[in-house]
Predict the 3D structure of the following.
Amino acid sequence: MTNTNTILYLDGVSVSFDGFRAINNLSLVLDRGEMRAIIGPNGAGKTTMMDIITGKTRPDTGTVYFDGTHDLTRYDEADIAMLGIGRKFQKPTVFESHTVEDNIALSLKGPRTVLSTLLNRRSADDARRIDEILATIRLEERRDELACNLSHGQKQWLEIGMLLAQDPKLLLVDEPVAGMTDAETEETVRLLKDVAKRHSVIVVEHDMHFVRELGVKVTCLHEGSVLSEGSLDHVSQDPRVIEVYLGR
Amino acid sequence: MILRALWMLLLPLLLLPGVARGQDAPLGEIIARFANVEKFDQTEALVRELGATGDPGVRPVLEALAEGNLYVRKVDNAIFIVPGSGKVLKLIDPLTGEEADEASSSALKKVRVNNGLRRLIRDVLSTLTLGAKSAEARMAAADTMFANPDPAMIEALDAAIEAESDPAVKLRMERARAAAVVLSDLPESDKIAAIELLGSLGDRSVLSLLATVEANADGDLQRAAADAIAEIRSVLAAWDAAQNVWFGISLGSVLLLAAIGLAITFGVMGVINMAHGEMVMVGAYTTFVVQGAVHAFAPALQEWSLAFALPLAFLVAGAIGVAIERGIIRFLYGRPLETLLATWGVSLVLQQAVRMIFGPSNREVGNPSWMSGSFEIGQMVITWNRLWIVAFSLGVFVLLLFVFNRTSWGLHMRAVTQNRRMASSMGIRTPWVDAFTFGLGSGIAGIAGVALSQVGNVSPNLGQSYIIDSFMVVVFGGVGNLWGTLLGAFSLGIANKFLEPYAGAVLGKIIVLVLIILFIQKRPRGLFALKGRAVEA
Amino acid sequence: MSSSLFGGGLDRRILGLLAILTSAAVLVPVLNLAVPPTSSFHIPTYAVALLGKYLCYAMLALSLDLVWGYCGILSLGHGAFFALGGYAMGMYLMRQIGTRGVYGHPVLPDFMVFLNWKELPWYWYGFDQFWFAALMVMLVPGLLAFAFGWLAFRSRVTGVYLSIITQAMTYALLLAFFRNDMGFGGNNGLTDFKDILGFSLQAPTTRAALFSISALMLAIAVIVTAVLVSSKYGKLMIAVRDAESRTRFLGWRPENIKLFAFTVSAVMAGIAGALYVPQVGIINPSEFAPANSIEIVIWTAVGGRGTILGPVIGAVAVNWGKSWFTAAIPELWLFALGGLFIAVTLLLPKGIVGTWDAWRAARRARRSAGKGTSQVEPPVAEGTTARTTRHSIEPQPAE
């Protein structure tokens, strides 16, 4: 963790719910600027791992360091978001009764106090940033529409856009292509690759085709710990991975 | 004074069994002397003398004397008991108890008696009863003497204690003796021993006696009295605590009954049923109606009307519950706050309907005889109806536990509690589970109403008075686990009753409410919360 | 007054409401005082008091709407803040009675003399000063809401749990204020007021003035609410309402956002209570009854939560209905109220204003669809709950 090139460092992390070990002695290191794909069967602990990184769940044991010095187990969700970790949920979660533009505006990096929101006036800088993000996520056309009127895939993009607006150092993206058409999946691959140029990213996904398209290092989780790690080819030929996940 | 001293000298002698008992001759002689008395103190001496014989046969004479029924026949100075009044009176032989003769009232002279004498007779009689055959009578005698301790009785008590075989009665006698010793002129060491005995018995009734001693004596005696008082107080405090625990358990059982149905519907459906209290009320009114009907059509079954009311209340409240679920709540799933408002509306309608049908005033539902009265354990009073309700609520709890853990309906309900979507995709018909659950929860509320009708008034506001407490139980205990409700109900009940003596009923309740509000900060989902990621999904 | 003044918070409808309120503030006193009773335009004094009462209720409903409609906090204890504000005003009015009380004690209110109290409890100090009482009207409910909210929101007590503990809060206060030794007059509460700031409460002019002040205060409350909800803060409130965890993972602190709304709302409710008490002439513990607080919710629901017009319309309409029912067929009022709860939640979840808006939006959408200028949208897409419309844009089967 003294290594300045490490953005996220998990070591020996365990957590259990009512006796069920969701995460078991999990260790994971993510380099700065790296994009990592996490795969694994249901119940492997993928979402719980994200819960731990974002402060929603406290690990029973183990250490979680972010950006070298920050012990994430000591912060809550809002603090961690401010430290620079953005999270997209498995189920796309956007502010349905706000317009697409307002969704981005509420996510823009900036002070997070009540007072600041009362006195807020949108600066030209903010406006430019919003335009930029809307362009990235290809929702410029629909900026004045309510988010509840977006398609499932567009909501996924909007949520990624909201993460970008936060300008985080690390993005955690949970199942970004679930429920997307093939064309939308292609778009998402392009979008994530684009994002990964400037940010560290962890993507959790079941869609092996999508993971292959990303072309990044893969970690396979099983029963709360790392089963196999490496290139997709390496991982998908690991007999243990075939046994528990990919199937023979 | 002299007489009394004399009597005290004589008494132990006379009380010796075999010396005094069953010897008719001296008894008859003493009785005959009533013919010659002229002053009350002569009568008094005779009474004492009779008492000193220790013969149970003197009882009718003394009782007759106290009631003014003892007469002297003027012609021969014979003594008779003459019950009743009129021109011609029956004369009863005081020793045999048989009718001896008849005489006109003018032929008789009454043996006069005054209040002082009556009191003396009562004491003498109780001394006599110390030798009675029945243990109950002996115990009653000892208690009478304890209530009016008299040093003159010490010897009688000593003898009785010696002869006593029943340990419980013996203890009461020793208590009476100790009380008498404290007031006597006996040496200080005896008194201290007596005080210690009284202290160890921990009885509220000797407190004033000991307080008098403490105030008037000095030195060791005073210290002994003070110690005994402190000892008694601590014993009493323990009993008071026990009594409070009991009251708390009793309140807890009522809360358990009222809350458990609520906990089920909240746990399984995530729905707060604000009309739950009205289901309790419906159950109570069902009891009222059933009792009226039984009284009118089958008075012989009066004692068992609750047995009819119980299933009927379950069905009536359960049916209303199912109707509410099918008619209103199923349209509001996923919107718990709206459900809360709609069921509040239902509660207003139900309340007003009951008010219009049965009137706004309280209705009384009688207790069957097996639920009335009370009994004591040590210094605790336990009423039967409360005891039955505690037993009943635990019975209901065990039954529900069985339904939940051992039946397929229970399995379905638990499945829906933990993950509704998954349960539904596994083929569980969640709408049926919901309707059944709501019916069950409401039915339980109905039978809670039957129970509550036995401890309080039945009024249209009955439900309102329990609803907030029931919410608190559910919030405190957490959902999805019946044990949480049990623990919640009894801890709130006991906490309430423990705070009451210090803070008063109202302030106690406020403190409990504030404590729960604070507790929720620590455990937002109650004592027994479901954990895991399904919960917040 | 231009709408741009307040960052676009005041739309045409709200400006209309403000116009109605300000003109009522002028007209009602005129029609009451200047127009002779024989005229058909005359408004009798009792009606002025009644209307004033409705306006206080409207303000109370608006305060609830701020937390429930916009921030998703269903408070079942807002009656408590209203009553606390009312008690603070009542204490001032009590101290104004002075020697004119039954016992003629210069300092102690009658009920304290009756209870044999020798001196004024410390918490009654200062209430002889209007400014102090006015401060307390806002401070006491505000502080309670702040303390309560700070505890509850920080521990993430939400949904029905929160509703139930707010109910427990007002219930605890109800029990507390019933106690004689609390020093607030026990179950009789505070009453027999004589005058306010030297003006007799019985005088028609005072009553008319109180009405005007209520109308103006409501107008101010409407402006404050409108400005709040149209600011970035208001958007955040709605964001917290719809997706609390999303705001948290974006770095916001939903507990602070809720706490601010809850406190502002409580202060508003307290002011409503303070205006209410001199107009009805009494404040007693029954105002804390949980049933009262739930009734506020139904006013808001009937009018339309999440709108500014809604709670005002709802409070006036429901209370007008209540006045009518309790005079004409009192035994049916609870049936009507209960039925209203059920009907509104089942049939009119968005309330009068919300439903009207949805209907107009749907009509506009149909019209523009007819012109073929924009893509076809199913009418439900306009704003019903997000849940039902989430997938409305997804490919529809061809018809």
Remarks:
- The radius of gyration of chain A is 18 Å.
- The mean pLDDT of chain A is 88.
